[in-house]
């Protein structure tokens, strides 16, 4: 007899299963939360490739559950399948973590290890997905229906708790801990790896307590064989063969009528699933496109608290926990009071509309976010801004370009980029600079699609020019970039946060470096003691790029700040409405869809519909992969495209739902129960007739 929890009718074994699920979900969602930024910041991929690989991984995670179900039901059983695939899962996490250590090989090695790790993780998490919940349900006796239902509620809570905590913690491990002078992705992946090891150890530790049912044969495989036989039989049949009511009826030569009718029911629901991947195409972009959007927003809540861009994903898990009871206890009953029939398919269509509205909100946010972004120059052009350090106003003329029409003031606060026409991949331009009526020409070589700063200063021998290439991209983690330009005859050493800057003398510029966002009222400065105690850099804000010009004033070094790229001025709170709308859509679409699938499936076909449901998630990620790599649209246009596509799909789904007739699995039981009784009566009659024939042959009658 199975051991029970003290004072309850719950098997003790479910404690190990619930803890296992919590740790596994922590490891999966924690790793996935920082995955897009890892591709961008660590592997240095562009946004489209990062998004495509992220969704390719997500899609694979939802294709592999079919493989896990086949292994469990046809070969190893649920327990061994969970054990073996969890080992694969752990190995994948470890390889992924090792690939994030900078000292382990070169970039190609990091990419190879990362891809191998992700493939193993996808097979691990997908393979055990259909097994763990079902294995937990197996622990209960047939007469423990209430306890089983409560278990699934607890199981669902453990999933969301693991997701919520991991999406809060792993971005902190990534950004607040530094490894090898960079964000610590090795730790951010290593902690989820450790949690997956704990999950495996906990599950194995409870081994002696589990009820382990042997493999029962895979119904999904049986369904595929039946469909394949029907198609083959129909193809090979002659034209004179009698027609069948339904194409599946061609399988009657080998399979029972009940199985064929059950498959027919399932196929009707699967056809209804065809439009559903578009919802998941939008939903799963929380971890990719929406996270990228967050990196270009203001992440500060007051002076003391800032959120990481990849932490915003925790809003979905948090609001799911809030919205499920609100919808069940308040919203749905209120809608019913208005005499509106809230059938499941109507809820799902409404969920699609909310998801489309979420992407409409994301579009509005994106339009405002990109206003602070410096767009790179197209082919045949470049960007140029001018720093005037000459002490007086100057005029700048660029051949064949109508730029800088007005005089440029001395040390103007906000240089602005102008687009230069090169009409070639590179070109030498003689830039005419006029100071106090005297003109000097500076010849500089420009290359297409690059950005430059032209620094003009005055010396005893006349006007001089120095040109440096600029880095105009905003950091993927949202931190600011800074650099220093030294006008003094002596070098300067500076410490800004964790970063060290050596600024050479005589009009030299340092490379750009990323520093933590924050106030820097007193930066350590090392030059001659009498000239450098500290420098006030002020607030270095999210996403900005600053150039600090070091000047000598009254025997002291001062830093004149220039903002090359504007700071992010759209607050991260503006993402909350899109998360609220998308989560509301998820509650109406996802939870309702699972309930609908369960109600429409015959008892032994529920796993088949569950597999079909998971495939809609997989194909949704494939859609994002195709759009991200193939469309080449601006981000706000891509958001708008997805919103429009989902609205169009919602119309198609609503039409399909209107003509859909609900399945009644219980009626199926009654029909075939009566048929089985009729068949038994017929068998009895046939037996009696045969006996009568035999008796008549012997000269006797059964009527005597």
Automatic annotation (TrEMBL):
Protein name (Swiss-Prot/TrEMBL): Solute carrier family 15 (H+/peptide transporter), member 2
Membrane-spanning ranges: 52-71, 83-105, 111-132, 153-173, 185-206, 265-283, 314-335, 347-365, 608-627, 639-660
Region (Disordered): 680-704
Superkingdom, natural source: Eukaryota
Family (UniProt): Belongs to the major facilitator superfamily. Proton-dependent oligopeptide transporter (POT/PTR) (TC 2.A.17) family.
GO MF, any single term: dipeptide transmembrane transporter activity
Record keywords: Membrane, Peptide transport, Protein transport, Symport, Transmembrane, Transmembrane helix, Transport
Compositionally biased spans, kind Basic and acidic residues: 685-694
Signal sequence region: none
GO CC, any one term: membrane
Localization terms from the record: Membrane
Coiled coil: none
Major localization listed first in the record, in broad terms: membrane
Membrane topology: Multi-pass membrane protein
Entry annotated with the keyword Signal: no
Pfam families cross-referenced by the UniProt entry: PTR2
A GO biological-process term: protein transport
